[in-house]
Amino acid sequence: RWTAEDVALREAEPWFDPAGFFLAWDGDPDDGGRLLGSHWTKVHPAGEAGPDPVGEIYVLGIDPDAQGMRLGRALTDLGLAHLRRLGLGTVLLYVEEDNTAAVRLYERSGFVRHAVDVAWRREPGRS
Prior knowledge:
Layout: H1 4-11, E1 21-26, E2 34-44, E3 54-62, H2 71-85, E4 91-93, H3 100-108
Parallel strand pairs: 3-4
Antiparallel strand pairs: 1-2, 2-3
């Protein structure tokens, strides 16, 4: 879970573009409304993630109480449309393999597995 400080740090990054940050609210956010979900897109300049600029689904999150409302799909579609308007044909994302709901959403949105990352760690006291 991100804190307000986490969000502020990323908003200060040079790549942050508020036009690519989408929020879904239940009610008026200025009058006690509840944040149901968000989709934060990112653009990698040419040479950073390939020879051409590449879009990214940087963070997509849905409140657990709002799951099943198809907000994930709606926010994904909104973010992808934004990246298309910027002329970006390639979009990447990272997702944990055991997040089956997200994996299904991305597969239904036309994403295919490109690479698999594996993380290792050594527990204290193990030889």
